[in-house]
């Protein structure tokens, strides 16, 4: 399916929604169940995203129209927001492909990019971003996965956990400590194929059934050809990717908030209570107004951060933190308010809002918890 190139953002968003509708089989107002086993990578969904042009839109230039390059942050946000409004499983699958592959796209060697990026863009290879460890989550500079020297390469020893797409990924962007005692300095990024000897893993059962797992590195050998970026500067590789993706986490949250708001408006229009539509009650109308206002404010922050990134502005990190913080906290409020307006029916397994209620919690934690975003904002003020 061809990807539009010169259209407006509005036209691009409409294209995303149309493509998303094509790959979503569930009827309106119900949960979109993954085709794969819960908690494992849905490879069939990734192939559909590739065929629909949605995954290739993350990686412009992977076909025959020029060199490999990253998508503008604004387009990444549009993809995630409008896909989330239709199908959060598809949105998450697309986002994780981007998160795992972008370190190679941004900082990898030509060989790494040619080997993995087109396969990820087509949905044929599954990518993963392996940063978090059992004792290094929000404090990512405290990484302990050891990269012990071995000739001109290294052996990796240690663990990673809460890794999206693990243990099913075909390749991992892994961050390991090559120089002890140096905090954010002394970390190196590696591209590690999933079948590398010594690498094993197991899935984790989560509140929402996403592909998330634990990895064990038992002497996994990596060489200079596996280094992503510059040795001992892997933390910069990670932060470059996260600065791009943090506003798009906010866009994902805005998409969920929009879906919840639309469901609440439809329900309160048609639900009769106290002699008329529920929406005519002042308390209900004011709640809907608050939901709509916060959602729009979150959207504006998200796209302001995206424009800052695309224009190489001086406040990328600050605005990305503000966007992720406000949008994810807003989505939690909006989804919760929509559940309250629906009453017990929203808690029924399979209802759209029951699904969103489980989905909306994690974005306040991953890629930097809300508390971390507040610290980043305070530091940059």
UniProtKB/TrEMBL annotation:
<keyword id="KW-0274">FAD</keyword>
<dbReference type="InterPro" id="IPR006091">
    <property type="entry name" value="Acyl-CoA_Oxase/DH_mid-dom"/>
</dbReference>
<dbReference type="Pfam" id="PF00441">
    <property type="entry name" value="Acyl-CoA_dh_1"/>
</dbReference>
<keyword id="KW-0285">Flavoprotein</keyword>
<keyword id="KW-0560">Oxidoreductase</keyword>
<protein>
    <submittedName>
        <fullName>Alkylation response protein AidB-like acyl-CoA dehydrogenase</fullName>
    </submittedName>
</protein>
<dbReference type="InterPro" id="IPR009075">
    <property type="entry name" value="AcylCo_DH/oxidase_C"/>
</dbReference>
<dbReference type="Pfam" id="PF02771">
    <property type="entry name" value="Acyl-CoA_dh_N"/>
</dbReference>
<feature type="domain" description="Acyl-CoA dehydrogenase/oxidase N-terminal">
    <location>
        <begin position="14"/>
        <end position="123"/>
    </location>
</feature>
<comment type="similarity">
    <text>Belongs to the acyl-CoA dehydrogenase family.</text>
</comment>
<dbReference type="InterPro" id="IPR046373">
    <property type="entry name" value="Acyl-CoA_Oxase/DH_mid-dom_sf"/>
</dbReference>
<dbReference type="InterPro" id="IPR009100">
    <property type="entry name" value="AcylCoA_DH/oxidase_NM_dom_sf"/>
</dbReference>
<dbReference type="Pfam" id="PF02770">
    <property type="entry name" value="Acyl-CoA_dh_M"/>
</dbReference>
<dbReference type="GO" id="GO:0003995">
    <property type="term" value="F:acyl-CoA dehydrogenase activity"/>
</dbReference>
<dbReference type="InterPro" id="IPR037069">
    <property type="entry name" value="AcylCoA_DH/ox_N_sf"/>
</dbReference>
<dbReference type="InterPro" id="IPR006089">
    <property type="entry name" value="Acyl-CoA_DH_CS"/>
</dbReference>
<feature type="domain" description="Acyl-CoA dehydrogenase/oxidase C-terminal">
    <location>
        <begin position="232"/>
        <end position="381"/>
    </location>
</feature>
<dbReference type="InterPro" id="IPR013786">
    <property type="entry name" value="AcylCoA_DH/ox_N"/>
</dbReference>
<dbReference type="InterPro" id="IPR036250">
    <property type="entry name" value="AcylCo_DH-like_C"/>
</dbReference>
<dbReference type="GO" id="GO:0050660">
    <property type="term" value="F:flavin adenine dinucleotide binding"/>
</dbReference>
<feature type="domain" description="Acyl-CoA oxidase/dehydrogenase middle">
    <location>
        <begin position="128"/>
        <end position="220"/>
    </location>
</feature>
